[in-house]
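Entry type: protein chain
Record version: 2
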Amino acid sequence: MSKAKKLSVKLLRHEADLLAAGKLVDVSHGGASSRWLTAASYDADKELEPPSQHDAALLYRPMGDLEVQYLVSHGELPDTQPYQAVMEGPNGRTYAEKYLRGHKQVNTSPTTVVEFYVPRALVDTLFAIQHKPEDGCISMGLGNKAGGGLELLNAVLRERRGFFRIVLVKRPSKKK
């Protein structure tokens, strides 16, 4: 009888830190070929004191490791993706997650979905600059070939008028 091959997963440092801090939860099932870490979407009414309605929105973006590591290190997105975009709300998160779940394909090898909590005015501006329908949501362009709103989002992050959180990670296993 042959031994089953053991799967191992080495998380990136920021992923391991978020998992250890309880900001991500491991939802991988036994026998999974990838390790899945997730967090619920931000809820301003539950998480901000005092609870109130905020003139803000949630945007989502699927990213590969290099882009996420730059974001984590510098607090803003790099200017490396000519077609990068963000999608708004719960439907935007569902759409972004399709890239990790294999329902959508791109050549950037996404491993992470990032959530951005930003002022509603930014979303309105990005929408006015460029938007297009995607599977059940609207995407707004950030890259220089997709609307060019990157500097607007980065300014919000630099000025601390918004923030980001990692809400989904798919870290592939390596067979030993």
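Comment: Confidence is low (pLDDT under 50) at residues 1-6.
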